[in-house]
Amino acid sequence: MKPPHATWLVTGAAGMLGQDLLVRLRTEPNTAVVGLGSAALDITDAEAVAAAVAEYQPVVVVNCAAWTAVDDAEEHEAEAARLNGDGPRHLAEACAKHGAKLLHVSTDYVFGGDAEQPYAEDAATAPRSAYGRTKLAGEQAVLQTLPADGHVVRTAWLYGAGRGNFVRTMIKLEGVKDTLDVVDDQRGQPTWTADLADRLVRLGVGALDGTAPPGVYHGTSAGETTWFGFTREIFRLLGADPERVRPTTSEAFKRPAPRPAYSVLGHDRWQQAGIEPIRDWREALAEAFPALVAAERG
Q1: Please, are residues 105 and 85 in contact by the beta-carbon 8 Å criterion?
Q2: Ranges for the RmlD-like substrate binding domain (predicted)?
């Protein structure tokens, strides 16, 4: 006799990470998956959230829904706060009522970006943008409401085949630009959504069996680079001359929201959960690349 299926609920399921998470969850034994995009569930609506969790009775909720338009958040912070701050609180309250675990995806923007070594999971937060402030509010809501059942997973520099992103943009531009000027004074960790999706599933399983403590985890690839270095690797994988990519500074690309100059994250918490951190970013990019090229070039 097969054991009963346990349901996982994914919010923001139509996004780049949400799509890969659904794919990964469908390979998990004895697991039923419900994916709700923003059109199906607006997490800023507390009553809708409560109704969805009551209806599906998930054992784990993974929140991939977020306001991710970093620059727009500077002028629309209140709206961003409803999605990034209030939404996770509504989910946490519903999970608390029904005894579900909550995995909430957050960001490197909660840090000040002025460190010189990887940020530990318990490093002091100091967001410098509206986006970072609203995402930090969401983290705090989850951890305060679900001290025993809330997991925050910070990530950064995400790319995947499911939606437009930096890698797909560079693939497109390689075909139409002789040279590209790319910022070389921001350091981070390019992270494939499929790799992050896998760690989220493992973390949720660990949360259910008691081996993954609640709290903050950092879901980014190992290693680090700049956007310039990242683009050169993309060109190399395309068989294009990396010398066509030229370094420039953030000053040359003024944006409404400040970007972290250094947002490399440390991964020590995974060891406590018995889970391997994500692999090196170059190895992941090489594996992801054929699907990225196919998605961009059709």
Answers
A1: no
A2: 9-289
Domain containing residue 185: CATH number: 3.40.50.720
Provide the CA 234 distance to its chain's centre, in angstroms.
Answer: 21
Task: Note the pLDDT tens digit of each residue in 60-94.
Answer: 999 999 999 999 999 999 999 999 999 999 999 99
Residues in CB range of 60: below 8 A, 6 or more apart = 6, 8, 9, 100, 101, 102, 103, 204, 207, 208
Q: Contact 155/196 with Cβ under 8 angstroms?
A: yes
| Cross-strand bridge partners of residue 246 | 181
The reply to whether 152 falls in a domain is yes
Q: What is the DSSP letter of 280?
A: B
The span from the CA of 21 to the CA of 16, in Å, is 9
Start-end of H helices in 146-280? 166-174, 193-209, 227-238, 269-272
* Residues 226-272: tens digit of each pLDDT: 999 999 999 999 999 999 999 999 999 889 999 999 999 999 999 99
CB contact at 8 A, 47 and 90: no
On the question of pLDDT at 2 being above 60, the answer is: no
Tokens of 295: 């998605």
Domain that holds residue 106: 6-226+252-297
Q: Is there a contact between 115 and 107 (Cβ–Cβ < 8 Å)?
A: no
Summarised one tens digit per residue, pLDDT across range 278-292 is 999 999 999 999 999
Active site residues: 131
161: CB partners within 8 A, 6+ apart: 168, 288, 291, 292, 294, 295
Residue 3's pLDDT is: 54
Task: Considering only residues 253 and 13, tell me which one the structure prediction assigns the higher pLDDT.
Answer: 13
What percent of the chain stands above pLDDT 90? Answer: 96
Give a yes or no: residue 232 inside a domain: no
Q: How far apart are CA 196 and CA 15, in angstroms?
A: 13
